Amino acid sequence: MFILTEFCRTHTHCAVFSQILKTFVGYSLQPLFWASISPLLVIIQSSRARIGEEMSSPHNHRRRRSSAAPLEGEDLLSEILVRLPPLPSSLPRAFLVCERWRGIVSDARFLRRFRLHHRRNPPLLGCFVQGISPIRFEPTLEAPNRVPEARFSFPIDAAHTYVILGCRHGLMLIFLWRRNQLLVWDPVTGDRHHLDVPPGFDNEETRIKGAVLRPAGVAHHFQVVLVGNSDIQLTQAVASVYSSETGLWSNLLSAPLPADDPDVVTRVYHDMCSVMIGNSLHWFLIGNFCGILEFNLDTQSLSVIHAPVDVDVNTCSVTVMRAEGGGLGFLFLSDYCVQVWKRKTDCDGVASWVLGRTVALDNLLSMNSEEGSQSPRILGFAEDNNVVLLWTFIGVFKVHFESLQSKKLLESYRFYRWFHYYPFEAVYTADAGIM
Questions:
Q1: Which of 20, 137, 140, 181 sits between 20 and 30 A of 380, alpha carbons compared?
Q2: Which residue ranges does the record assign to the F-box protein AT5G49610-like beta-propeller domain (predicted)?
């Protein structure tokens, strides 16, 4: 706040910041906003200082009238507003301030910039929950940022056979089993794109899994990565990539799968969606062995990584996750004990798993494990927020295992343990006449 006060005292833009301060007073993420604009304040200050030095020089007397300080007027205000927290109530609040602000935040170009600016740090709006009833959206934010349940109405009726393959970058990927098609759905805009499954994937013999993503810095185009077992030889994993920019699927890529027991097929585990770490996608493998199928988007290649522990998916739950400090991580939950693993590479280039920490979940979440008849279960991983979703007998929690911070998101019922949860992270602006 000292930086802001000094800036307002010495510069002509104090009215802009004062109005923002009044509008967002008490904002739960206000410190994050000031942290995000502080580099901008430094840039403006240094730019003005540099320009002041240039203007004081006698050699620059002729340029005095034509030179203009950067980020003046609308440009400065736009740069500030685009850094508001990416919560549903941010732009509607700004929209109500005055005519000038209303014009900026309702401009289609600004809205595209706002979404793109926050593409990699969206809030966790909620979860799509698939259980005994039709799929529904369960909001997890508190008012005034809570998204109404009916806002994201699932686009497929119960008569169709479908499988949700996951959510990422504000998109959901759905496999339409009977049609042998994929549906890419944007819950915020309602846009839908149907894709035919490429040759080489047999949904009769093996499970098809996939992932959807938007390339960095791209607002409209998306990619779909489809993985599964070869329809000819089940000892191979295959993958293909679709680009909406070209409208084409790539050639099939393959990687051998361990086959210690020829009678047991290694498949992608259906209860865990893909997890993106860096520029690679990861799926958990079960069958002949427990491992991770990795698809590198840069090299367009498949590889298999052995898991750090043997997993019985009937009694334990797991998820791939981003490790502390970055890189590939692995979370293993057995009863109330959590093991957090990290993949490290030594000086010789040899990669191995290292146990980072062990967490007693009943202590972390302040619950009496003796009161619960069912053990906790991992529901999913919200990769942009780096939090794990956990079902417990006292509620559904999100847990950040680096900081060991947790928050209860939903009340819990016993049968909820077996529901499928799909975390939905996206930049969404609540209706206020600006969408």
A1: 181
A2: 164-426
